[in-house]
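Annotated sample (chain length 103).
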Amino acid sequence: MSSSPKPQDLRSEHRDTLLRLFRHPTSHNIEWHDVLSLLQAAGSVEELHDGKFVVRLGAETEVLARPKHKDIDAQQVVDLRRMLTSAGYGPLVEELKAKGEEV
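Output written by the structure step:
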């Protein structure tokens, strides 16, 4: 993955998930399977035997736990924003917002 992601690098549903993750106020209905799909498109994801996921995105590696329910919680949103911003997706989010892409 390049250090400067472009909107065309992600499919429409991935861009929608990315925008939902960066929405203010924080959305409380972002489904785990959508996040997992975005992370697989943007980096690499390995499922461990205990049901946790090793996510490599840019220079960062994090272990994420599958939420108990279908939606991720607010802390996971914060963690994902940090990871995605560190991997260079902050400017992409701003570009998508400027283009008026909606969820």
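Annotation: The beta strands are 44-47, 52-57, 60-65.
Annotation: Residues 21 and 77 are 6 Å apart (CA to CA).
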